[in-house]
Design a protein that fits this description.
By secondary structure, the protein is of the alpha+beta class. The chain has a domain of 105 residues: Guanine Nucleotide Dissociation Inhibitor, domain 1 (Orthogonal Bundle). It contains 13 helices and 19 strands. The protein has a 7-stranded mixed β-sheet, sandwiched between helices. It has a 3-stranded antiparallel β-sheet with strand order 4-8-5. The chain has a 3-stranded antiparallel β-sheet with strand order 10-11-12, with no helix packed on it. The model has no long low-confidence stretch (mean pLDDT 91).
Length: 429
Amino acid sequence: DLSIMSVNGKKVLHMDRNSYYGGDSASITPLEDLYKRFNLPGSPPDSMGKGRDWNVDLVPKFLMANGQLVRMLLITQVTRYLDFKVVEGSFVYKKPKIHKVPSTETEALASSLMGLFEKRRFRKFLVFVANFDENDPKTMEGVDPKKTTMREIYKKFDLGQEVMDFTGHSLALYRTDDYLDQPCMEAINRIKLYSESLARYGKSPYLYPLYGLGELPQGFARLSAIYGGTYMLNKPIEEIVMENGKVVGVKSEGEIARCKQLICDPSYIMDRVTKVGQVIRAICILSHPIANTGDVNSCQIIIPQNQVNRKHDIYVCMISFAHNVAAQGKYIAIVSTTVETGEPEKEIKPALDLLEPIEQKFVSISDQYAPTDIGTESQIFISRSYDATTHFETTCDDIKDIYKRMTGSEFDFAEMERKKKDTFGDDDS
């Protein structure tokens, strides 16, 4: 968000109490630092290779190839600082094993998730979704995008519970089943996003940066610097200075940096946020690819909540030495979900069982916060905590929300793309 403000001509100072970029979404290196962070005794065994070979994400997320973050990266030209690899597979859990997510007509017809007749009905459903255009009634087959619920759409194509499960949770990427009784347009757009992202590179709809997600904030910091932004690491924030209910500066090491507007995450201003839940994440180091994935070097696995009697899905993101984030022959699988009980580790057992044997495990439980102050009066604009989803779409929605609160206008991709052409020319490489 700050780099977008820099590109838009705002004067930006970025202060971070940490010694590394990215806050909660940092990649930790070397491996010894991860052991310290999780208070594990001793140091990593020799079997883990060189500590410097590791860049371990604290918050696992992939980028949708056709999603909002990739669009932002292209607009702002941060792509010049990053190299991406396509994630090699997308899987869904159906008791007792995992299956490849069918997202093309060909895959749908080959999938072991459905019987023959259901495959045909699902194929018809995919064709309907691909052709659906809310501005062209001919494509709608009598569906009202603002009124017809997604439950009614599934019924229209006579799709059963398990097809609803993997469609809603592995293609539309909903975390719960609340979407079923909402108007169908959002779900249709989400399935389109998945299919269009998949069509770009073929193996999965997801991308992941070499050297880990910590490369993203560093790329944005470089971009901000090009436009005159200043970045300070290791800068403790002692006080947010207010006058007449409005932010006027930030005090650090006895000095005040004056400002008209302030963007921060919830940890910097706890009296203006509220706790909205918890997320459990387990970073698991493996010496083997995950079983039943065809030995891929990277993948996502979604365990739909219905399959394990929960309200929220469980996610697994797996990356490896192929992405320069682990020592040769090592894999990092990160499990995450929204906490529902007083025993969060028991909640992720179905995912951990898929990963056995696990060489080392680092478990964290993070409180999630949302702002109670939207910033209109105070001019303090607070982000939401990272959720359990394994892609950046909800994070981008939050960035656009902050942008709107700060500027009073919607974040307009087309407008930003026009500005980019004026500034950089037409090159998208």
